[in-house]
Specification:
Elements: H1 2-13, H2 24-37, E1 45-48, E2 51-54, E3 58-59, H3 62-68, E4 79-80, E5 91-96, H4 98-101, H5 104-118, E6 125-128, E7 136-142, E8 151-153, E9 163-166, H6 175-189, E10 221-222, H7 251-261, E11 267-268, E12 284-289, E13 299-300, E14 302-304, H8 309-316, E15 324-331, E16 341-342, E17 345-346, E18 356-360, E19 386-391, E20 402-403, E21 405-407, H9 412-419, E22 427-437, E23 444-445, E24 448-449, E25 456-463
Parallel strand pairs: 3-8, 5-6, 5-7, 7-9, 11-12
Antiparallel strand pairs: 1-2, 2-3, 4-10, 8-9, 12-15, 13-14, 14-18, 15-18, 16-17, 19-22, 20-21, 21-25, 22-25, 23-24
Helix pairs in contact: 2-3, 5-6
Length: about 475
């Protein structure tokens, strides 16, 4: 049996362990830095054909690496990564390439793997595409970046990893092995880690795959209710496959998936204290609302972390007043929050606050609020902060003092025309808060003559 396992390790773990705007080199450097911070040993991180892999078969994108170092507190909640699939995902479609489909065992193995997941009654289903109604799509293809190993992407942005990639040699293995390995790789796209991450010699023969992958509590998190140990053939998520694998989930696999993705696995949004996550930028929280709520909300797109989640979700356009599931992402402190009216909800403005959140998922685009709705003087002291706002047709006779730097009681829209940021017909612009000046100069530009003035306690500048 051991000899057969060793053959699989050569020809195909090779079959299994081989899963997985910025300058590519800089991007990879950040990914590697994030992975090391997430507890992965440096020797377990490899750059292959300009792509970064961990644990053999885990392909890690920049976003996925950033999410890995943002573990929610108290979630030392078989093992998973920090990255999980959000509740907005209800149907995951798997589109297989023509090359993938040409391998009969692989193609059948994919169908059997899909059946494994759908038999559990999770809060999402898998469907083989192309089809309609997909809230996420995974591509099944032939491994090109790593022609000797199978691999998969980890989740990011609350969506499952975007691909699983198989080597042609997999097709030469029994159908059960194809089912097993494809089920395993799909597990990675859902955020599952190797069950024997702490000692891969449990499933792997001596060699490069039998080491340790990372530290628990950071890049790998224990799923409550499952064993903290691993045994030979104890999980489809063990690092290495064996010739006697059936391709079916074990009881601990089923427990782990139901804890993470069972119908009742998502917490209630009113019970979530987002402020407790301050400092964990990028951490994602999945929760449900029974209705649109009615509590106070401050901000637009970015909301103060004491805002009512359900009300904010309606305002953001990710949920209706009848309720539903949402994914919110922790964001850092902001110097200003802008109130607007959207989808029947009016939020409030606020100054500096130590924590914020935004929603993951499709949101209704909205124009920025009118510049005339802001009292710029009330934001004094928040120098460097910007307010995005909109001007309709501009009154060229409105009062403006200064040139390039304007007194904070000046008419913003007239100042924007004077600065050349918008035409007199109006448009969108950014107002950046600046400190007071000892004097303000008068000039004539773009049909507007500004006034001069001496010392004033606050200023602003304008940009498109």
């Amino acid at each position: 049996m051991f000899k057969q396992a060793a053959v699989l390790a050569v020809t195909g773990v090779a079959l299994l362990v081989g899963c997985g705007g910025m300058d590519p080199q800089m991007e990879n450097e950040e990914i590697i830095s994030n992975l090391i911070e997430a507890g992965y040993p440096a020797e377990d991180i490899h750059v292959i054909n300009e792509a970064v892999f961990v644990s053999g078969d885990g392909h890690v994108t920049l976003q996925a690496s950033r999410e890995m170092i943002q573990a929610p507190p108290g979630s030392a909640e078989h093992y998973r990564s920090t990255n999980l699939v959000g509740p907005q995902v209800t149907k995951i479609c798997i589109d297989s390439s023509a090359a993938f489909n040409s391998y009969s065992n692989m193609s059948q193995g994919l169908d059997l793997a899909i059946g494994n997941y759908n038999a559990l009654g999770l809060r999402f289903t898998f469907a083989r595409g192309p089809t309609t109604g997909c809230s996420a799509t995974i591509t099944a293809g032939i491994s090109i970046i790593r022609p000797d190993e199978n691999w998969a992407d980890f989740p990011s942005y609350g969506l499952p990893g975007g691909s699983i990639n198989m080597i042609p040699a997999l097709n030469d293995q029994p159908l059960d092995i194809n089912e097993h390995i494809i089920t395993h790789e799909l597990g990675h796209t859902l955020g599952l880690r190797h069950t024997d991450y702490f000692d891969r010699s449990i499933s792997c023969p001596p060699g490069p795959y039998s080491g340790v992958e990372g530290d628990e509590g950071v890049g790998v998190i224990h799923i409550p209710g499952t064993p903290t140990t691993a045994v030979w053939n104890g999980s489809v998520m063990n690092a290495c496959p064996h010739i006697d694998n059936t391709g079916e989930f074990t009881s601990v696999d089923i427990t782990a998936l139901n804890i993470l993705y069972g119908p009742s696995a998502t917490q209630s949004c009113p019970n979530v204290n987002v402020a407790a996550y301050q400092g964990q930028t990028g951490a994602q929280i999945r929760c449900t609302c029974s209705s649109g709520g009615g509590g106070p909300v401050w901000g637009t797109n970015l909301y103060t972390d004491d805002s009512n989640i359900c009300t904010a979700a309606v305002h953001a356009g990710v949920m209706t007043t009848s309720g539903g599931a949402v994914v919110l992402e922790v964001q850092p402190a902001q110097s200003i929050f802008i109130g607007t009216t959207r989808n029947g909800v009016t939020t409030s403005s606020y100054g500096a606050w130590p924590g914020s959140f935004r929603f993951i998922g499709a949101q209704v685009p909205q124009p920025p609020p009118l510049c005339s709705s802001f009292n710029i003087m009330s934001y004094r002291g928040q120098n460097g902060s910007s307010i995005r706002c909109n001007c309709p047709t501009v009154s060229l006779g409105a009062s403006v003092w200064g040139t390039d730097l304007y007194t904070d009681d000046s008419d913003v829209c007239a100042a924007a025309v004077h600065a050349g940021a918008i035409p007199s017909t109006g448009g969108q612009l950014a107002v950046t808060l600046q400190p007071g000046q000892s004097s303000y100069l008068s000039t004539t530009r773009n049909g507007i003559t500004t006034l001069s003035y001496g010392y004033w306690g606050g200023s602003f500048s304008i940009s498109p």
